[in-house]
Amino acid sequence: MKNKTTNSLFVCAAALALAGNAQAATVTFAGVINDNAGSEISQWKTVSTTKTLDGDGDNAYGTLAHLVYQYEFKGQGTLYSFDYADSQVGPFGSYALIDAPTGLGDINVATTSNGGGGGADHVMFTFAALAGSPANVRIGIATDGLDDAGYSSATIGLRQVGGSAVEYTMTSTNSTLDMVFFDVTGITAGNQFQVFADAGAYGYATHHFITWDVIPEPGAASLGGLGLLCLLRRRR
Predict the structure, then answer these.
(1) Domains contained in the chain, number
(2) Domain residues for 161?
(3) Structural domain includes residue 10
(4) Over the Cα atoms of the chain, what is R_g?
(5) Inside any domain, residue 142
(6) For residue 146, what is the domain's CATH number?
(7) In whole angstroms, what is the distance from residue 100 CA to residue 80 CA?
């Protein structure tokens, strides 16, 4: 009986150690907002507007960090390092109006452009996690509506350099902003990530802004349950 108990405890300890020491980041698709549903993309900082895919529950996107071209990269140099992006274009009067990063007033959002030289899986933006970056975040990528396939991305993707990748194919045709969300878990300092897309018919791949929000650690409940099971086994 002693050997059985010892073996059970050894198995539990090994399982807990493996669960707690996983290092590889994982990228998964979290959802999409088509056609600026309920203005929640354009009003991304307005807490009175419902945010269906907010990761941290404060009813705003980009609380942890956000990149709004030519205006602000909150988190640059503290949580993330900016490595590369396509050229910034605009803002122009015909571009979508969104909340200013400070939450005061509206601005015409800028975009990126590869100058019509993109193809499949064209990298639009790269960033790396610094020491202070949380391990688990939801990343939202806003892109122009698919009212003209020649100037819009057929897909939006996110990948860890040397790791997992997910690419979402846009299916809605509209003339406003869309936003694709990915959950990234198990991030460690130095991990590098790329936002990428398949270019449209005229060779352009663009996106407008990016948001980061903390999400709960996945599997925390199951890990706690495993610990409880081990404790019960030990008592028996």
Answers:
(1) 1
(2) 24-216
(3) no
(4) 21
(5) yes
(6) 2.60.120.260
(7) 21
- Please report the pLDDT score of residue 133 as a whole number: 95
7 within domain boundaries: no
DSSP string, 11-72: HHHHHHHHHH-----EEEEEEEE-TTGGGTTTTTT-TTS--TT-SSSSS-S-SSEEEETTTE
Closest CA to 36 of 150, 140, 154, 174: 174
Looking at the domain assignment, is residue 81 inside a domain? Answer: yes
Q: How is residue 14 written in tokens?
A: 């090994």
Q: What mean pLDDT, rounded, does the chain reach?
A: 82
| Mean local confidence (pLDDT), 207-216 | 95
Dist CA 111 CA 102 (whole Å): 18
Q: How confident is the model at residue 193 (pLDDT cuts 50, 70, 90)?
A: very high
Per-residue model confidence as pLDDT tens digits over 77-112: 999 999 989 999 999 888 889 999 987 789 999 999
Quote the crossing angle between the two packed helices 220-235 and 2-20, to the nearest 10°: 160
Phi-psi region of 119 (alpha: psi -120 to 50; beta: other; left: phi over 0): beta
Strand arrangement, sheet containing 165-169: 80-85, 122-129, 192-197, 155-160, 165-169
Closest CA to 23 of 187, 190, 197, 228: 187
73 pLDDT above the threshold of 90: yes
DSSP strands (E only) in 71-177: 72-74, 80-85, 87-89, 97-99, 106-108, 111-113, 122-129, 137-143, 155-160, 165-169
pLDDT 10s digits, 27-38? 999 999 988 989
